[in-house]
Give the backbone structure.
Amino acid sequence: MAGAATDAPERPAEEEEYRLSICSKLCYAIGGAPNQVAGSAAAFFLQIYLLDIAHITPFHASLVLFIGKASGAVTDPVAGFFISKSRWTKIGRLMPWMLACTPFTVVSYFFMWYLPPFVSGRVVWYLIFYCLFQALTTLFQVPYSALTMFLSTDQKERDSATAYRMTMEVLGTLIGAALQGQIVASAHVSHHCIVNPPVNATDSWHDTPSLPDPSDPLSHQAKVYMIAAGVIGGVYLLGIVILFLGVKEKDDPYALNSDRAIPFCKGLGLTMKHGPYVKLTASFLLISTAVQLEQSNFVLFCTHAADLRNHFQYLVVTILVSAAVSIPFWQKFLQRFGKKCAACGISWMIPFAVMLVTIPNLILAYFVAFVSGLSIAASLLLPWSMLPDVVDNFRLQNPHGKGQETIFYSSYVFFTKMSAGIGLGISAAGLEFTGYKPGICRQSNDVILTLKILIGAVPAILILVGLFILLFYPITEESRKETKLALEVLRRSHQSTENLDDHKEGISVWQL
């Protein structure tokens, strides 16, 4: 009875230990926002910058986009390997990586938007700095994503921290698109083009340059892009300071103290054989590729296929405001109805995107932007909310393994980045094949048809196939609760064993 009485008050204290303060969640969320600010600016504007400002051919632009994404993808498992081998320091095991790579990320990001004075070597210039930027953001993103597992062992607290993170990352995406859009909008406005050309317009009007040649690094077009890059670089530095000061990384609270780290190659093999992880990754690999295609081609579609060149920055902001506002809704929805059920919201954008492609209307465009924001929010929140459940499930099946968190996160990002790189490369190559000409008032009908397919049909097919794969994802709300209870039993039994061993050691020492 006395033992039961003494055990009773320990549970609230234990729960309090796992609980995260609102301040910690906010600081954690803000720390990841700069990556999304920069990623959003690049996703929406890098392709049109390379084509219309740097005057790189669509084929070379496709090479820059694909190789850049591929370099980031290849860096993921490499980063996971070295981070999993890292030793604990006074500021944690993951935090030193994020602190070290941020200054170099800022420099590479700025030069990614710098227009060099030479013309012949521009492709190499952008390839080098885009690859560096992708690799460095990966060195930040892998430990930052894995940090979720080192904030708390409580699933609800991790889900809550993920919701804070996703909300702030969507706000970061909004800030990035809004900042970039407002600063560089003047670089894409031309007084030489009219929205509705006369019926008897000749081919000479179609070939009229919509922008002056911005090959001069000091041109207005080049300057506004560098200003935007400098502002976003400052956001990076602010974010890492807040993350460092506001988040305390716990010394692997998830693992049992006596566990030994699994070798990286063996751990990677076990990860790739874990059924829930394979299904989750395959599903969101396709869904994230669809979202990337929407983002990278949306500005081009508004400019050349929908006669909405004067509204694209406001449409982008509408998408992202809708996504940011709906994150708390999706968090409540998945708590009430389950994560697999919430995935259905990703498909909402499909019919409306198809409508916009077939009936390019301004009012419809804003409505499509709003609904797309809802779907994008679900596609951003769900994989990062479901991935910790997969790690828990793996942990239960391999209770004496340690250090698998970074392998799960880095390999997931590897696959999604690689698929996005392939998708972006193919889309840019498709524009080259159909005859895209940088800077002219109106593109050919083949180019317009290609943009419509990239915005409508291709993302719709990818999303539907991804959701079909997700139907076979085995982790349900009931199995999540069972896994949580089983892991708690493992931890407590392990702690009891350790306490008994310590007690025996103390007795033997006293007898000596």
Remarks:
- Confidence is low (pLDDT under 50) at residues 1-15, 194-205, 506-510.
- The first strand starts at residue 260 and ends at 261.
